[in-house]
């Protein structure tokens, strides 16, 4: 009897759908199909065909925005209003990949600069890098899939996508829309499995030319070490995003922004606001306003439009987060808010001055918790912010230009945002984890570059 996967609602664990899973034979078949599709060059989709498919898929997705938003809220637990925004971004991402093809080209290489290179023309052309394996995460179950497969489709790579087993439905539904839009099945196949060894087989198969991985650092770095020779990759992991709040910061605007950046999707975002360094001159009014806003967040069923904070993806994650909070409090941190709504859902919490050796100060929380630390000297706040082996996006809030520019220059981050929270992102901007937080650069144009190769052609004139 074929095995199945039970996909449940994150909030109440009610069954949404039972779907079949793939076995080792299915993986073998899918890899053969992808490799064969790449080998038959005469069957490659033309750029105008790829553009038309992606744009048509975007139109089909726009027509079903509410259905997809509801599915995101059900399987992933993201509040419905935020899920609607995720669908909007996914629509834009499909269009971005299509439009990027207008500028996706090689270049002329100058010849005749030496006698030996005279009488030649040289130029490069873009070609697909090969078969792409994409392994995705749960926290943006539609938009992350778009970020991994739309660039592959745009540049002409056959792609096999493995969604997170907690949130596979958005992926499956999106692939159906792409097929309705005219994409032949061989160009984008899904691989559904709970078997980590099969996922590793997919990533490390010698026919894979590029691995796109979004998920835990432990798994991602391990897979990178096992890739077949020649396979390139992009890894996107988590961080513990730092924010510096200067004494000149506008407290009302700053706290409003940080509440969104810290508690969006219950903190289950790789660049979620986590460590907030606040100047001692404003620590009291900052905490008063910040805690008031955090404890006023509406927590509950993500399908309700008034909900601002929903569940964590699995009940065991609530246990982990609660244990980390307890550890910080036992070591001297002050707790504001917090507690449980249910086995799946936590109330937002703020920790003041947790010690540097507490888990919440060292590791990615990935839950509805932020940590506030008082500081006196900007250099010291920057030093502590930079002290972890992870680095992704960072922020500074200041009405004075000098501390803002100093923090922007000295913070170890791929992106420093001034007067905005760390979770801000557009889908056409570069997005990259540094240190242990990732490898390569995300963002649709950059991923298209990584999933392609340039071939140089040299023409000798008579």
From TrEMBL:
<protein>
    <submittedName>
        <fullName>Acyl-CoA reductase</fullName>
        <ecNumber>1.2.1.79</ecNumber>
    </submittedName>
</protein>
<dbReference type="InterPro" id="IPR015590">
    <property type="entry name" value="Aldehyde_DH_dom"/>
</dbReference>
<comment type="similarity">
    <text>Belongs to the aldehyde dehydrogenase family.</text>
</comment>
<dbReference type="Pfam" id="PF00171">
    <property type="entry name" value="Aldedh"/>
</dbReference>
<dbReference type="GO" id="GO:0008911">
    <property type="term" value="F:lactaldehyde dehydrogenase (NAD+) activity"/>
</dbReference>
<dbReference type="GO" id="GO:0036243">
    <property type="term" value="F:succinate-semialdehyde dehydrogenase (NADP+) activity"/>
</dbReference>
<keyword id="KW-0560">Oxidoreductase</keyword>
<dbReference type="InterPro" id="IPR051020">
    <property type="entry name" value="ALDH-related_metabolic_enz"/>
</dbReference>
<dbReference type="InterPro" id="IPR016163">
    <property type="entry name" value="Ald_DH_C"/>
</dbReference>
<feature type="domain" description="Aldehyde dehydrogenase">
    <location>
        <begin position="3"/>
        <end position="456"/>
    </location>
</feature>
<dbReference type="InterPro" id="IPR016161">
    <property type="entry name" value="Ald_DH/histidinol_DH"/>
</dbReference>
<dbReference type="InterPro" id="IPR016162">
    <property type="entry name" value="Ald_DH_N"/>
</dbReference>
């Amino acid at each position: 009897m074929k095995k199945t996967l039970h996909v449940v609602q994150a909030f109440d664990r009610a069954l949404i759908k039972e779907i079949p899973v793939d076995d080792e034979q299915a993986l073998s078949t899918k890899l053969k199909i992808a490799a064969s599709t790449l080998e038959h060059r005469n069957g490659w989709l033309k750029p105008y065909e790829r553009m038309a498919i992606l744009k048509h898929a975007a139109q089909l997705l726009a027509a079903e925005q509410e259905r997809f938003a509801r599915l995101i809220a059900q399987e992933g637990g993201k509040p419905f209003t935020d899920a609607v925004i995720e669908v909007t971004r996914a629509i834009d991402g499909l269009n971005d990949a299509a439009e990027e093809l207008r500028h996706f080209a090689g270049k002329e290489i100058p010849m005749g600069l030496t006698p030996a290179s005279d009488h030649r023309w040289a130029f490069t052309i873009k070609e697909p890098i090969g078969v792409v394996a994409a392994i995705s995460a749960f926290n943006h179950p539609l938009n992350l899939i778009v970020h991994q497969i739309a660039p592959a489709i745009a540049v002409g790579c056959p792609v096999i996508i493995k969604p997170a087993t907690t949130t596979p439905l958005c992926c499956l539904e999106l692939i159906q829309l792409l097929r309705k839009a005219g994409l032949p099945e061989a160009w984008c196949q899904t691989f559904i499995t709970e078997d980590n060894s099969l996922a590793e087989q997919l990533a490390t198969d010698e026919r894979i030319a590029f691995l796109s991985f979004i998920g835990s650092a432990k798994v991602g770095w391990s897979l990178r070490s096992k890739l077949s020779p020649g396979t390139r990759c992009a890894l996107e992991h988590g961080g513990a995003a730092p924010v510096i709040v200067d004494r000149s910061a506008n407290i009302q605007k700053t706290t409003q922004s940080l509440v969104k950046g810290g508690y969006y999707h219950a903190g289950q975002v790789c660049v979620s606001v986590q460590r907030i360094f606040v100047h001692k001159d404003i620590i009291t009014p900052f905490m008063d306003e910040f805690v008031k806003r955090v404890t006023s967040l509406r927590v509950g069923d993500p399908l309700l439009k008034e909900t601002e904070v929903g569940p964590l993806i699995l009940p065991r994650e609530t246990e982990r987060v609660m244990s980390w909070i307890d550890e910080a409090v036992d070591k001297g941190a002050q707790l504001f808010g917090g507690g449980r709504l249910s086995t799946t859902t936590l109330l937002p919490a703020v920790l003041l001055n947790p010690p540097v050796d507490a888990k919440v100060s060292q590791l990615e929380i990935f839950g509805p918790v932020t940590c506030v630390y008082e500081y006196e000297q900007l250099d010291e706040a920057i030093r502590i912010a930079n002290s972890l082996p992870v680095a992704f996006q960072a922020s500074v809030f200041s009405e004075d230009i000098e501390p803002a520019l100093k923090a922007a220059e000295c913070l170890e981050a791929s992106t420093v945002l001034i007067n905005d929270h760390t979770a801000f992102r557009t889908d056409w901007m570069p997005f990259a984890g540094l240190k242990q937080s990732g490898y390569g650069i995300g963002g649709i144009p950059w991923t298209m570059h990584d999933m392609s190769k340039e071939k140089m052609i040299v023409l000798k004139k008579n």
